[in-house]
Amino acid sequence: MRRTLWKWHGWLGLTAALPLFIIALSGSLLVFKNELDGLLMPAVISSKGGPALDMNTLMHDAERQLNGYELLGWQPGEPGQNTLLYLSKMGSYVWQKTYIDPSTGLVTAPVKPVDHYLTDWLLSFHYTFVSGAVGIAVAGVTALLLLALSISGFILHRRFWKTFFTLRWGKSLRLFLSDGHKMLGIIGAPVFLILGFTGAWWNLDEFSHEIETHDDSAYIITQRYYNDKLDFDAILARAKTAIPGFVTTYIRLPDKSYPGIHLFGHPADAGPLRGSAGSIISFDDQTGALTGVMNAASLGALYQFKDSFKPLHFGTFGGLTTRVLWCLIGFFPCLMALSGFWMWRKRVKR
């Protein structure tokens, strides 16, 4: 039984090696996506500083500077960063993006495809290999393989404490790599299980939606779908009373496919495993009247379980400490793929 499991572990590792290397390397970098954006394109991302303008002023400034486009999404940035705007050109339904400085109301970049910037392309590459539904499926299966490798590796080394600190220096490269491979696997196993499970769930769920037939031509933007005279500051204030201390992290503006104005976010006192956009407060797009409140804290166990995926997958639940750990441990599969492949080549040659 153990010999068979060794073989399966090896073949699963070889199958997953290349896509897992790519996913692990890109994912490790994406833990610090916001920081990388600030370093790579400060003129686009970094705010001039100072107090933010009110929401109504910012909306009017964005609409004036982006004539010919319709706003679809509004995502406030981290402190010191600009707000991300999603929009589509009139006469089309192709999502694009730009940024606006919340302290000046100035748009800081030309309108670009959503995966134009390096880290956005890297994010797309991370979970789709830039290959649409096929890439999403491959990434999902790779996440399942990581899950299987973590479980089988733990079974094979279930008495890991006996040789956990053993690194046979000076014996042979094969023995050193074998010890290092095992050590990295033992250290990273809990994180690998989290990353494999959440990644597989997201991608396979996304794949099921991708293969459904849908015609975006039915949603071509032909007009503004919300009332120009809406008071967005009043809407934001109403959200804070609908869910006490509500923090808005994304505003979805209406189009033909998605009527209403929806504020995604979380209560200010949300726990570390609460997603940043798991609660939703909805408003009528013509009158601004409150139409629905969905507080993640009061929903079922399955919803709350899924709501914890993002902080668990990106390691944000423990602040900078867990993000650094996730970045480092997320890179382990790259090293393990290389060491595993090298050991397999040596066995084949013998």
From TrEMBL:
Keywords: Membrane, Transmembrane, Transmembrane helix. It comes from the Bacteria. The keyword Transit peptide does not apply. InterPro entries: PepSY-ass_TM. The chain crosses the membrane at residues 12-32, 127-156, 183-202, 323-344. Coiled coil: none annotated. This is Putative iron-regulated membrane protein. The lineage of its organism: Bacteria, Pseudomonadati, Pseudomonadota, Gammaproteobacteria, Enterobacterales.
